[in-house]
Amino acid sequence: MTIRLMIAALSMALAAATFAARETRAESPQALGLVATAEPAPTMQCQDGLCTAYISAFCLEEHHKSPRARAA
Fold this sequence. Notes:
Blueprint (H helix, E strand, L loop, with lengths): L2 H22 L7 E3 L10 E3 L2 E3 L4 E3 L13
Antiparallel strand pairs: 1-4, 2-3
């Protein structure tokens, strides 16, 4: 195998591995836009160290996959 062919093969393998790792990462942060409402924001509920509040939001980064339910 020539050096050029070996370098090209290694480059493609590295690019494929990087792309695959990026696609499986579920923790990547996403910029969200919050929807304004006329009513005050809901009260945050906390129980056993877990706090929740339901608000409407949309992703500002269309190229990101949607997060899993209850992942945040």
